[in-house]
Design a protein that fits this description.
By secondary structure, the protein is α/β, with parallel strands linked by helices. The protein is 38% helix and 19% strand. The protein contains eight helices and eleven strands. The protein has a six-stranded parallel beta sheet with strand order 6-5-2-7-8-9. A three-stranded antiparallel beta sheet has the order 1-11-10, with no helix packed on it. Strands 3-4 form a two-stranded antiparallel ribbon. Helix 6 links the parallel strand 5 and strand 6.
Amino acid sequence: MPATVLTARALLLDMDGTLVNSDAVVERIWRGWAERHGLDGDEVMKVVHGRQGHASMAVLLPGRPVEQNLADNARMLAAETADTDGVVEIPGARAFLASLRDLPHALVTSADVPLSTARMNAAGLPLPEIRVTAESVGASKPDPEGFLKGAAELGVDPADCVVFEDSGAGIAAGRAAGMRVVGVGPRAGAHGPDAVVEDLTRVTVEALADGTIRLHVG
């Protein structure tokens, strides 16, 4: 199948499942949480990818007070930050980030600063200079706030941005922001991204003379 070619002025990158494979930790932490709350682990795992923890809890335990979700989320974040066993780069992530070094790009993640720093370090990946983390937004993905903030910080129109995402919540957020979305990994294809790749070895970045970024995807 021929590669999809997309052009952009900036790229906005999710972290978990897109640059970093943290599934082993997420499974350990969230299946333990599901067991403590008498919930089906498989059903919980369908919800948690891409969202901030408290937003996932609000979906899974409707009616529970927000304050309780926030306190529970703080404990979960601390546990996830301390557990980096099995955290590795998504294949191609290091080379992909290197190819973006002098091009406009930002990390847009539902993780907070300590968690995103811990996971990127564990995977041996450099942190992009511009980062939109959980502390930066009032609403979790699938709300588009994070991606719109990333575009604003880069000074690029949302329509000129391409998002890289793995989760349904993240892809929906990119779409709601008016951006094109490249889906990465096994979860992405079911959520209608503009293009989908198994991993980042399937993406080539070309910097054009006029400042445009040309992506060969697939």
